Amino acid sequence: MGFSKNKLEEYRRRGFGEVPNKYVCQDCVNNTEWKEQIRQMATNQSRQKCSYGDNRLATIPLDKFISHCIEFINANYDRVWEDWGIKPDEETNKYPCTTWDTWDLVHDIIANKAGIGHEELLKDIAKAIMSEQDTIWCEHDVFSK
Ligand SMILES: [Zn+2]
Asked: Distance from the CA of 86 to the center of ligand 1, in angstroms?
C-alpha cells in the first residue's frame, strides 16, 4: 500500500470528506511499517509541525495519511449493504455477521493496526471518513467464517 494522490482524489469523488489542514509525523503511529511509510513520505521542505505532538520530526499532510487508512479499509473491509446486500434482522436489528460503524472501525481497527493512541487524530480520521454517512462495514470474508 502506498500513498497515492490519484487514489485520494478518487476517494474524494466518492464522497470522502474534507480533511482538516493538519499534519502527521511518524511518531503518531506505532506500527513499524506505517511509521516507515510516513518517514519516507515526509519531507523537510514543508516543515509543517506535527498537529498531534510537540516533536520536530518531518510530517506529511493528514489527508495523505487518511487516504492510507482508507486504502487499508478497502483492502480488508466491505460495506455490508452496498457490497453484500446484507440487512439487519428486522426483529432484532442485528446483522448476521460482525459489523462496525465508521467510528468503531477507526477507533478499534485503525487505532490497533496503526498503533494510534492520540484521540484527536482518531477523531479527525473518523470525521473525514464519516462523510460516507451511515456506512456499516464488515470483513471481506464475511461468509467464510
Ligand atoms: Zn506526530
From this structure: 38
Binned at pLDDT 50, 70 and 90, residue 115 comes out as very high
pLDDT digits 0-9 by tens, 7-28: 556 655 555 666 778 999 999 9
Split at pLDDT 50, 70, 90, the class of 1 is very low
pTM: 0.81
- Are the C-beta atoms of residues 113 and 31 closer than 8 Å to each other? yes
Q: Which three cell numbers stand for residue 6?
A: 490519484
111 contacts: CB under 8 Å, gap ≥ 6: 117, 122
Contacts of 105 (CB under 8 A, 6+ apart): 73, 77, 129, 137
From ligand 1's centre to the CA of 52, what distance in Å?
A: 5
DSSP state of 61: E
Nearest to 19 by CA among 62, 71, 60, 48: 62
Residues with CB under 5 A from ligand 1 (ion): 25, 27-28, 50, 52-53
